[in-house]
Amino acid sequence: MTPAAPRRSTAKRIAVIVAVMGPGLIAANAGNDAGGIATYASAGSQFAYRMLFVMVLVTIALVVVQEMSARLGVHTGEGLVSLIREQFPLRWGAFATACLVVANLGLVVSEFAGIGAALELLHVSRYLSVPIAAVVLWSLVAFGSYRYVERVFLLLTLPFLAYPIAAVLGHPSWTTVATHTLVPHFIASRAFLVVVVALIGTTITPYMQLYQAAAVADRGTGADDYRSARNDAVVGSIFCNVISMSIIIATAAAIGGSGPLSSTKQAALALRPVAGSAATTLFALGLLGASALAAAVVPLSTAYALAEAVGAERSVSRGFREAPLFLGLFTGQLVVGALIALAPGNLIDLLIDTQVLNGVISPIFLTFILVLANRRSLLGAAANGPRMRVLATACVAVVAVLAVAVVGLTVAGWL
Fold it and tell me: Which of 239, 250, 304 is nearest to 275 (CA)?
């Protein structure tokens, strides 16, 4: 009888972990979207391995931020915007929400542009693929339960696994990779700084924190399951940045030092060691999965945020009659994003510029998260301890300084 008890205990722990696993992995990997892939690939093609040390720091910051977001969702049962509305003056909450809407709408456009570009590589017109993708994504959310939609989203992360393989088969100098990962190799130039902020913007994106907290609350994860939710957030953050760094390594090995990317076909060269002549097809499938994942998660995070801001019902598991504002906002974003994405333009420039915008807006939301996670009146014993406060404050401060620097350099360039 004695050996059976530990086995049941272990089985129970595994069952709890599997049940809770999902929001952290989805939220983090949604950052490896069309804009993320373009930004990481451009970092590798433009600066080779120099951005790897930056990505180590960004990974630490992402783990800290996603864990705080998960903790807020678990211990309060509310999303971030709902907490901001309750804990801060109305104007502050309105400002935070406005920043989120601007950033996320641009991202929705870029995700549909990514879907169109991916299928154009497979010789399918974007004027056909983008509308079909919008209808499919809308149907998944409007008619499926949260559990079902979540499984679909998780499946869409599988194409990311091709990039670590490409990084290995590209035969980079692993000594150089290790050196640039552990030791900073910065360049004093505006171009380098802009790419750094774009990396931050595509990795630590406001919608990821919003989705993390809202999804944990939506599925009813309680304080007793916090440890599993935390593990989900941490593992998801590390996994997504292993993929991100693999993209940089693979691209640097293939076309490092050739300058900024100018097309999706050029980005596909990094996968040639994996797929040979089929590299373009493999890249297209990965880009399609990444874009589709984020094309659903980004408008969902905005719908969560705006519904929370006015106290309306918000849940993927509800129908239009029960949550008309939530699903209406989601539908409207898909329509606007798909329509704008059909306009002609340079995809790579659009994607990277969108990530820079997110990098500039991120410090605003990160500050709200930090203040909320520090409040014992809100979280009690689950609030940030002294060490976590110092680490989280340092992360937010560095992101803010870099964002201000990019804005300053941009304005100086205009003048």
Answer: 250
Tell me how far apart the alpha carbons of residues 78 and 133 are, in angstroms, rounded to a whole number.
30
HSE-up (13 A, CA, CB side) for residue 360:
18
Residues spanned by the domain of 257: 20-414
Work out how many domains the chain is built from and give that number. 1
Q: Where are the alpha helices (DSSP H) in 77-145?
A: 80-87, 90-121, 126-143
Q: In CATH, what number is assigned to the domain containing residue 250?
A: 1.20.1740.10
15 in any annotated domain: no
271: nearest Cα among 162, 172, 177: 162
Amino acid code (one letter) for 87: Q
pLDDT, tens digit, 9 for 90 and up, residues 98-127: 888 888 888 888 889 888 888 888 889 889
Span 388-405, pLDDT tens digits: 999 999 988 988 888 888
Rounded Cα distance, 111 and 113, in Å: 5
pTM of the predicted protein model? 0.81
Instruction: Measure the CA–CA gap between 255 and 262, rounded to whole angstroms.
Output: 12
**Cβ proximity of 95 and 332 under 8 Å:** no
